[in-house]
Amino acid sequence: MKYRPASSLLLVTALAACGVGPRYHRPALDVPAAFTSPNASGTQITVHADWWASFEAPELSRLIDQAAHASPDVAAAAARIIQADQATRVAGSPLLPTITGQAAQSYTRTGTGSQAAGSETALLTSFNGGHRYTDSRLYSGTLSAAYEVDFWGKNLDALRAARATALASRYDAQTVWLTTASSIASTYFQAIGYRDRLEIARHNLKDSLDLLGAYQARLQVGTANALDVSQQEALVAGYRAQIPSLESGYRQQVIALAVLVGTPPERITLAPAKLTALKLPPITAGLPASLLRQRPDVANAEEQLIAQNQTVRQDVANFFPSLQLTASGGLSSVALSMITGPGTLAASLGSTLTQTIFDNGLKGGTLGEARGRYKELAADYVKAVLQALSDVETALTQSAYDAEQEGLEADAVARAQHSLDIVRAQMEAGTVDITTVLNTEATLFNDQDTLIQVRIARFLAQVSMFKAVGGGWAVPADKQAATTRDTTALQGHPA
């Protein structure tokens, strides 16, 4: 049989997806031409994806590599990509006809009676106890197709929304990975810093004990008094009391590392390392506008906005009539072997035009809700851009002033050490009192501990800078031009 209406179906499909509703336009952004914080750079910068390797800490690289395979956060983000991809398949299914097949068999037995000659249902006649039975079997097979003509583009808009959501899920996974890697680096440097502070504290405790021994010896020969010894003992007790807190801080950082890399805390240990042995790589900020392409969280926020814009278009299209096409055809026969041979052929083709007359505000409310959600996501996108700019400015400021403070604190440590050397020489000569010794000693110890904390802050600021500029990530090459696109540009891009 020839189905002439098929040509009409192709024509209607070709006219489908005209599209209604607003096209996407990026919200207005106030992006400055350059950063204003110290050490800002007005040129484009290049950050490698394995930015943590620039610290030249092999154990840090090992931990981040372990997290790539074992982190629960990373695994969950990957699973969300799978969900989004499958949702895209679901959203794209209405763009093609739905075809269903059906096969059926029926069996009938009738008893006692004569069967008209030549009947095509009289297949088997049997006798049982003088009674006559007639058995009949009927076989049939049917194919049906249904298709909603997407004349207003609502089904295509749904697919585009799903594609944008799938793309957003990939950007979200990149954000999760960048956050995980930077958290591992920050936690690692804090752990190493606690260990450096522990070393300083234990060294200071040993020096204080040595000085206490000297006072105790002088007390025995009458060149020192009990107050001198008691004051030094109080200083020693104070230094000893600091050690448990530092040990606890170190252990807590190691436990946090275990969670980040996806391993039980009992199975993680850190090899000996010192912050002073690690490299502090320089990094500049580049141009503010580049953050729109380098920050996965910003790209994620925009793709969510694009997806919602498609949802608005879809809800607008719901106000227009829908055209449903159906077609079916099949064969039926009294014998299975006749399905492919002579039998009864049936076919049908139909169309239905549907328009909602009254829905008590359902479609209007749905569209209003979608538009409200779009405004919310637009505000979230602007906020993401502002947060990106703020992150860079904060990291630049912290990095610049921490570097200055470290230089000043190193000078303070050198001067305090020189003062303590002089005071100890005067103490041995008996020309200085215990108060001067205690004050000079405490000043040196405090400056040494502060110097370590400032160096930790410099490493943390550097990690924050890598994270703030996107950690070497960038919008894929085929998407860079899409940052100013309208919704139609998503058509043809794989999810």
Task: Give the key terms.
495 residues, alpha+beta, Outer membrane efflux proteins (OEP), 2 domains, five-stranded antiparallel beta sheet, 10 helices, 12% strand, disordered N terminus, disordered C terminus
Give structural notes.
The chain has two domains: 16-95 and 150-320 and 360-490, Outer membrane efflux proteins (OEP) (Up-down Bundle), CATH 1.20.1600.10; 101-149 and 321-354, Outer membrane efflux proteins (OEP) (Single Sheet), CATH 2.20.200. Helices cover 57% and strands 12% of the residues. The protein has helices at residues 5-14, 58-70, 72-92, 154-221, 226-261, 291-294, 296-317, 362-429, 434-468, 477-480, and strands at residues 98-111, 124-128, 131-149, 322-333, 344-354. Strands 1, 2, 3, 4 and 5 form a five-stranded antiparallel sheet that branches. Helix 8 (362-429) runs antiparallel to helix 9 (434-468). Residues 1-16, 113-124 and 480-495 have low confidence and may be disordered.
